[in-house]
Amino acid sequence: MGRPLNTHATINFACTGCDPREAVKAFAKIRQNHFGKWTTRQLPPPLRHEATGAYAFENVRDDAPFLTLQPGDDHNVHVHWIVHLPPGCLKAFEEKLWRWVERCCNGIHDAKAIMITERPAAVMRNYVLAGCDPKWAEIYRATAQPQGMIVGGRRSGTTENLARKRRIERDRQDKKVRPLPYQGGSKSIKTHRKSALVD
């Protein structure tokens, strides 16, 4: 596809005015209403592209998951979001992201609300896969760990161009076979379900 996932943003909803039970919805607004439009309409024409990325929510602090999310409960709901940015767009993305989070999360009250880094893909991959189902951990060479209570939507996902349906279509065209877990170990079959982060 030619769009490496080269930027890792962490948004900590505990540092915003967002109800942690609404964090998934707030993040969906950031992705769909702002980031998607920015990448396809607002970047200079040669840099415009279909938004490309993946995300995973966590509700942990110091490796201890929060198992409840009732009003008033302590929490550390945050999302790891890895995206493709064209060269030279990091500063503009960071400025935009602060605005988007402030708008979609009822304000920001701590400078630790957003952290953006450019990391190797393998490091970012580990953040996204930390909460995967243990049956997939062996295939992905990941360590599955409880990532705490998240409500209101999906814990993880990808942009449409990295989604399972598109991946299956590309794999069929390329005659690519991917491993799937099954009871007793893993095997390779021609129907695929694998993270879009791993080729």
List keywords for this structure.
Replication Protein E1, Chain: A, 31% helix, 2 domains, 199 residues, two-stranded antiparallel ribbon, single chain, alpha+beta
Overview of this protein structure:
- The structure is a single chain.
- Helix 1 (23-42) crosses helix 2 (90-104).
- This protein starts with 6 loop residues before the first strand and ends in a 10-residue tail after the last strand.
- The model is unreliable at 185-196 (pLDDT under 50).
- It is globular, with a radius of gyration of 17 Å.
- It is built from five helices and eight strands.
- A hairpin with a 2-residue loop joins strand 2 and strand 3 (64-65).
- With 199 residues, the chain is an alpha+beta fold.
- The protein folds into two domains: 7-159, Replication Protein E1, Chain: A (3-Layer(aba) Sandwich); 163-194, no CATH class.
- This is Replication protein.
- It comes from Rhizobium chutanense.
- Residues 168-177 have a biased composition (Basic and acidic residues).
- Residues 189-199 have a biased composition (Basic residues).
The stretches of 5 or more residues where confidence is low (pLDDT under 50) are 185-196
Q: Which percent bin holds the helix content?
A: 25-40%
Number of strands: 8
**Share in β-strands:** 15-25%
CATH architecture name of the largest domain:
3-Layer(aba) Sandwich
**Biggest pleated-sheet summary:** 6 strands, antiparallel
CATH fold-level topology of the largest domain: Replication Protein E1, Chain: A
Shape: globular
Structure classification:
alpha+beta
What number of structural domains do the residues give?
A: 2
Multimeric status of the protein:
single chain
Alpha carbon gyration radius: 17 Å
Question: What's the level 1 CATH class of the largest domain?
Answer: Alpha Beta
- Distance between the terminal alpha carbons, to the nearest Å? 11 Å
